[in-house]
Amino acid sequence: MTTATHDHDHDHEHHGPAKGLTRWLYTTNHKDIGTMYLWFSFAMFLLGGTFAMVIRAELFQPGLQLVQPEFFNQMTTMHGLIMVFGAVMPAFVGLANWMIPMMVGAPDMALPRMNNLSFWILPFAFAMLTSTLFMEGGGPNFGWTFYAPLSTTYAPPSVTFFIFAVHIMGASSIMGAINIVATILNMRAPGMTLMKMPLFVWTWLITAYLLIAVMPVLAGVVTMMLMDIHFGTAFFNAAGGGSPVLFQHIFWFFGHPEVYIMILPAFGIVSAIIPAFARKRLFGYSSMVYATASIAFLSFIVWAHHMFTVGIPFLGEAFFMWATMLIAVPTGVKVFNWVTTMFRGSMTFETPMLFAICFVVLFTIGGFSGLMLAVAPADFQYHDTYFVVAHFHYVLVPGAVFSIMAGVYYWLPKWSGKMYNETLGKVHFWLSFVGVNVLFFPQHFLGLAGMPRRIPDYALQFADFNMVSSIGGFLFGASQLLFLYIVVHTIVAGKPAPAKPWEGAEGLEWTVDSPAPYHTFSTPPRID
Amino acid sequence: MKLQRVFIALTALLISSVARADWTLNMPRGVTDISQEVYGLHMLTLWVCVVIGVLVFGVMFYSMFKHRKSKGAVSSNFHESTKVELAWTLIPAAVIFAIGVKATYTLADMYNFEESEVTLEVVGYQWRWRYRYIDANAEQEVSFFSSMSTPRDEINNRLEKNENYLLEVDEPVVLPTGTKVRFLLSSADVIHSWWVPALAVKKDAIPGIVNEAWTIINEEGTYRGQCTELCGKDHGFMPVVVEAVSPEEFEQWLAEKEQAAIELAELNDREWTFDELMERGEQVYGSACASCHQADGSGVPGAFPALANSPIAVGPADGHLDIVVNGSRGTAMAAYGNQLSDADMAAVITYERNAWGNNVGDMVTPVDVYNFKAGE
Question: Which class would CATH give A2-6+35-511?
Fold first, then answer.
């Protein structure tokens, strides 16, 4: 097979990338587009991270020191929006673009022109969203969950730009998802049956269906806001016969599957890395697939657990509590499978493995607090406190973000043809690991002690843990500059990497050269 | 050497902060039967998680130490077992079922709103709470606003912060112990959420919707909480303070408040002098207007207009009445028509027209306010 690829490269050498800026503007190549998605998401990660630094700096001590409450609210809102829609989601799409065609033995994505479009509208969406910070009345200040009527009747004028930006992001995600589904279902190499696909492909297939199902719901809810604000409707305005609670139902019908959109691909990455460094096949492949599908299904019937305090009736409350607790079962199955994969393996601990193991541990801690939050009576105490902030940051940062970093270290040799510096990678890991725990673990205590989220200033009993948390935040934030350095250093000055730099790695992507040629698998490989 | 000194300094800082610190780790048990039950559920779920965590991570760390390549470990070949998969699906499901049953009973208790003896209406406003004791037999219902009383100078670090920084109000809500109190919650503008951790009561106050909650407080004391739903600029500055007293004390307090309410209603009918209005107006301004328009009437550029020398405040009285009574649509300026009594409205408008260099010289009386509202 490797030979076949080589021949093919020689045939197509004149088909290399175009030169200059137009290469990136006009490209329909999945690798180029994947690269752009990844760099874009990293830029957004730094921007959203900067906003987080402002938040943590203001919360370093009680009292208002650096920013006023109006601006603080804009920071929390923009931090959430940019991290969710600008950093985590595009990073996963970037990984999908790079890896899915190579993993299923396809020459490119199924819809390459749409691929170009779905990337290139993103920078405009985020430029517009960020520009609201400079508008009169400021940017969105109503939280990333933008509950009406704070985001409608009481919103700053820039809310209209926010709505437009969300529409563009939604369109981009839907196009990306359609592309991924079409690629996976139509372009697998002969012999690659569904149950032979790598788990990253499986988890992305399921994620793509989630995206197609719920992004239109998000588009719907922001359109209803637009109508309320500019065209005199009253979907969410009680005075006109509407209901602010309707907003929350629609938002969370999108929002809960959205949470899994940000974690399922992470499961796929970790399921590739742990077997590679344990030198042992993934335990329970088919149960992993079924567990992922169950989690995806359940994600549609748990949305109101975000709304336990809005006054839904007892039976509704009980239903959503039970359905939510049920999610712990398939999630537990996945964790047990990863641990069993490591058990009696032959492990080494290179940077991707360190991030992957850290993912398993800290994501599970986030899962535990998720189970606690699911218990409705107790949720009355946790809801909208720092306990919730700690919970979702544990699943999103050492969860989703660490899995992305693990994936970057794991596949960077394939992308760039160069090896990263292992020592620096490990330093980056340990700094991030310590930083993230110092940052988020104390927030559990803050929430239990009674500190509400989204406040710019707090009572004195919360002072100490906030200071600890801020110190962790600064450490974690600074460590990510090291990550940038490591990646750039690898690309510029890394040592050449072999086609398969990891002894235990499995999959078609390791059968092509490093760096992966501009076109791979023009002739499909055969899988037996 | 230098590093060592930094290290010593950091350690000293850490020790000193530990010494004076309040490192509360856990949820309070609270002072109601429900809050104790909730605490029990919280601890139960926590310990279940800890046990599962120790088992799972125990196995994981065991293999991370034992099954490393550097120790010569050779990987096994097993990769499937339906029995094991079934076991770790069914056992966690059973554990979760047990927690779920216990939680459902507590939840049902929390939803039993019947047989309450006192009904308290809680209405959220940007950024304070209004409490009303609903009693059809009262001659004059007791109703008042409860706003944060922490001085802005403490927030802006010009004064040392007091013990109850951000958790103190000008007028706490008073409730009797050992009595079932039902809360009816709603909002006048955006969504707020009324939370007192010691009572394990948190319910959203939503415009257009009336939510229910209840409590029976077992111990006398002062219990503090906060708004827990982002409600705009001063979300962090709308605390809840509940004063729990014996039923006798509560009856007495309520009777006094009722008497005061009757007297307050009479204020609307009496004659006022300019100086009296100015004096009362300054108080009303401080609690109702100053958080946005600032104590010196200078406003916040770009967000809240200045009142000093503003066209409305020095223009015709009708225009001034209109914006305060009806609010300004599409801005943060709320309608105060139902929030302030006619006397307070007259006082605050008179004050605004004649303070901080504004010198209109006229005075708006409660009768003017009454006529303005009636004429609409």
Answer: mainly alpha
Taking each helix axis from N to C end, the angle separating B342-354 and B366-375, rounded to the nearest 10 degrees, works out to 110
Provide the chain A residues 34-93 that lie in CB contact (below 8 A) with chain B: 62-65, 68-70, 73
Q: Which residue of A has its CA nearest to B223?
A: A450
Which chain A positions have a beta carbon within 8 Å of B89's beta carbon? 329-330, 332-333
Residues 102-161, chain B, touching A (beta carbon < 8 A): 103-104, 106-108, 110-111, 126, 154-157, 161
Full DSSP string of A398-415: IIIIHHHHHHHHHHHHHH
CA dist B47 to A240, A303, A330, B99, Å? Answer: 48, 26, 20, 11
* Portion 427-456 of A in contact with B at CB < 8 A: 445, 448-450, 452-456
For the question of residue A260 being annotated catalytic, the response is yes
Partner-chain contact B76 A344, CB within 8 Å: yes
Domain ranges of chain A: 2-6+35-511
Closest CA to B226 of B165, B180, B153: B165
Distance (Å) from the alpha carbon of B267 to chain A's nearest alpha carbon: 32
| Predicted confidence pLDDT, tens digits, chain A (528 residues) | 344 444 444 444 456 788 888 999 999 999 999 999 999 999 999 999 999 999 999 999 999 999 999 999 999 999 999 999 999 999 999 999 999 999 999 999 999 999 999 999 999 999 999 999 999 889 999 999 999 999 999 999 999 999 999 999 999 999 999 999 999 999 999 999 999 999 999 999 999 999 999 999 999 999 999 999 999 999 999 989 999 999 999 999 999 999 999 999 999 999 999 999 999 999 999 999 999 999 999 999 999 999 999 999 999 999 999 999 999 999 999 999 999 999 999 999 999 999 999 999 999 999 999 999 999 999 999 999 999 999 999 999 999 999 999 999 999 999 999 999 999 999 999 999 999 999 999 999 999 999 999 999 999 999 999 999 999 999 999 999 999 999 999 999 999 999 999 999 999 999 999 999 999 999 999 887
Q: Is A79 a catalytic residue?
A: yes
ipTM of the complex as predicted: 0.91
Cβ(A50)–Cβ(A480) below 8 Å:
no
- Tell me, yes or no, if A141 comes closer than 8 A to chain B by beta carbon: yes
Q: Is A30 a catalytic residue?
A: no
Domains of chain B: 26-61+80-112 (no CATH), 118-251 (2.60.40.420), 268-375 (1.10.760.10)
Q: Name B121's bridge partners.
A: B132, B184
How far apart CA B176 and CA B166 sit, in angstroms, is 24
Is-catalytic flag, A173?
Answer: yes
DSSP letters, A458-497, are: --GGGHHHHHHHHHHHHHHHHHHHHHHHHHHHHHHHPEE-
Active site residue A249: no
